[in-house]
Amino acid sequence: MSALLELDVRYPTGAPRVDVEGFRLAEQEKLVLFGPNGAGKSTLIKVLAGIIAQAPVPAAAYLPQAPWMFRGTVRENLEFGLSSEGTVLARAVAAELGLTDLGLQARQLSGGEAQRVAIARVLARSEEIVLLDEPLAAVDLRDRAEVAGIIRRRLGRRAAVIVTHDRDDAAILGDAMAVMLDGRIVQRGPVADVFAQPVDESVAGVVGVANVLVGEAAEVDGNLVSVDAGDLRVWGLGEATIGSSARAMFGGETVTILPSGSGVGSARNSWTGRIRAVRRLGRLLEVVIDVGHPVVAIVTPGAAEALDMASGAEVVVSVKATAVRVVGGD
Which CATH class is domain 213-328? Predict the structure, then answer.
């Protein structure tokens, strides 16, 4: 797809805190900026929003990390600056986010409720690019997956740049992910690829090593939901509507590798595959197994030696369903 936004960012110009060459955002792309505090994520998104003057950028709907609220009602804050069509949309999004009493004074809202007002307002804007700086930071942990799903769905076909340092938020909201360290983008690619295969130990230290499988919710069994990702079925804890898009996430450290033909005990997720790569990750090893989809496991050198984990070897991979988190996607 063609680029909606393409520029070099160097701010400030003397001794830059952010130095990103060839930043690109494609049509309809949902790009997550991921990294620790102080990595330059918020500075970069402010440049993209035109808050920090650098170079001409397209008009974008921008949600700052600390959204402002003025005196007046929730409705007045929600609808400020919107067209009549945007006002209708803002009310609909607000209702989805649980905001029902729009006549309240804005100062009566909690931080999380104020954040929902700001989210609804920015998602009702008409710009083709949406910029969100830590949109879920003030939302209660128990509600974050639901709110993230609403954001993802309401973004629709628009392009977005989303700042976060939370792995679950990144997996739900992003198609692509750019990891920032010390003001630079050190790795960029599909979210699942970046989580599964960090380019080096510094990136692995920031994002961890995780598996993100994107597919469709297929079955519900109590608190467990299965996700069909191609030919792979994954069971995990979570909520998703059958037939809807869903994502299954589990850490590389939760993956068990056994010799081919072994039993898998109580693990509900069990797949046979072949080892495609073994890479050193600090004192541990990262093992990539092709089970119809690449699954990454983190093991000790001793375990790898005991199982003779050579490239091409057939193995059994298992992950307990309780170690898998399932969230609804767009």
Answer: mainly beta
- Compute the distance between CA of residue 149 and CA of residue 121 in angstroms, rounded to an integer: 16
User: What residues contact 243, with CB distance under 8 A and at least 6 apart?
Assistant: 216, 217
* Residue 25 CB neighbours (<10 A): 23
CB 167 within 8 A of CB 150: no
DSSP-assigned beta bridge partners for residue 26: 3
Fold adopted by 3-210: Rossmann fold (3.40.50)
Q: What is the pTM of this model?
A: 0.86
Grouping H, G, I as helix, E, B as strand and the rest as coil, residue 203 is helix
- pLDDT tens, per residue, the chain with 330 residues: 789 999 999 998 878 889 999 999 999 999 999 999 999 999 999 999 999 877 778 999 999 998 888 889 999 999 999 999 999 999 999 999 999 899 999 988 999 999 999 999 999 999 999 999 999 999 998 898 889 989 999 999 999 999 998 888 998 899 999 999 999 999 999 998 999 888 888 898 898 888 999 899 999 999 999 999 988 999 999 888 899 888 999 999 999 998 887 765 667 899 999 999 888 877 888 899 999 989 999 988 888 777 777 788 899 999 999 999 998 765
Contact yes or no for 17/11 (Cβ under 8 A): yes
- Spacing of C-alpha 101 from chain mean position: 30
**What span, in angstroms and rounded, lies between the C-alpha atoms of 254 and 250?**
7
E strands present in 144-281: 159-164, 176-181, 184-190, 210-221, 224-229, 232-239, 245-251, 256-259, 269-281
* Domains of the chain, residue spans: 3-210, 213-328
State how far the Cα of 183 lies from the Cα of 179, in Å rounded to an integer: 10
Nearest to 72 by CA among 99, 106, 23, 108: 106
- Listed in order, strand segments (DSSP E) in 68-175 are 129-133, 159-164
